[in-house]
């Protein structure tokens, strides 16, 4: 093996390490987008278990579909930029390689941001309930149960979380 073939193999190893690192970052970005807490009436966090909750009963006055947006962390943009930059770096040589790296990073960042934006939104319901005592409240939660005006429901409140469920 001569010196030039050794440097080619070394560059190939370095390139494959970069691709593996970029893939790991992209995977973390996807997982971070999915890691937000749940707004479902059926999901309890560990801190909510074994806690007393106030139970009130009432009737659904109205139901309105809403979008729950958990916001963006920037992980999608950063992960996409890294993956795009690494992909662009594998194209061309010299100045062309620098340009394709920059363009790849920009395109990857935009794509990563769009992916994170899509993953951070879920369908929800704004449920307006008239309680037996006459009080009226509106609660927003994930649309994992179907509610209609006139449904008799129970509302559980405690630990900063309120949820509507069927009786």
From TrEMBL:
Residues 1-32 form the signal peptide. It comes from the Bacteria. This is Glycine zipper 2TM domain-containing protein. It comes from Pigmentiphaga soli. The keyword Signal applies. It holds the Pfam family Rick_17kDa_Anti. Keywords: Signal. Residues 76-115 form the Glycine zipper 2TM domain.
């Amino acid at each position: 093996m001569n010196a030039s073939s050794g440097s080619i193999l070394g560059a190939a190893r370095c390139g494959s390490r970069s691709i593996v690192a970029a893939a790991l970052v992209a995977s973390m970005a996807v997982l971070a987008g999915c890691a937000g807490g749940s707004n479902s009436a059926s999901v309890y966090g560990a801190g909510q278990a074994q806690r007393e909750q106030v139970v009130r009963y009432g009737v659904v006055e109205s139901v309105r579909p809403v979008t729950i947006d958990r916001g963006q962390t920037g992980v999608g943009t950063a992960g996409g930029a890294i993956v795009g930059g690494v992909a662009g770096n594998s194209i061309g040589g010299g100045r062309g390689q620098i340009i394709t790296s920059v363009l790849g990073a920009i395109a990857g960042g935009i794509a990563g941001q769009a992916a994170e934006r899509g993953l951070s939104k879920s369908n929800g319901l704004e449920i307006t309930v008239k309680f037996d005592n006459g009080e009226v409240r509106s609660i927003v939660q994930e649309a994992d149960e179907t509610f209609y005006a006139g449904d008799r429901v129970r509302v559980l409140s405690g630990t900063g979380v309120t949820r509507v469920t069927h009786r």
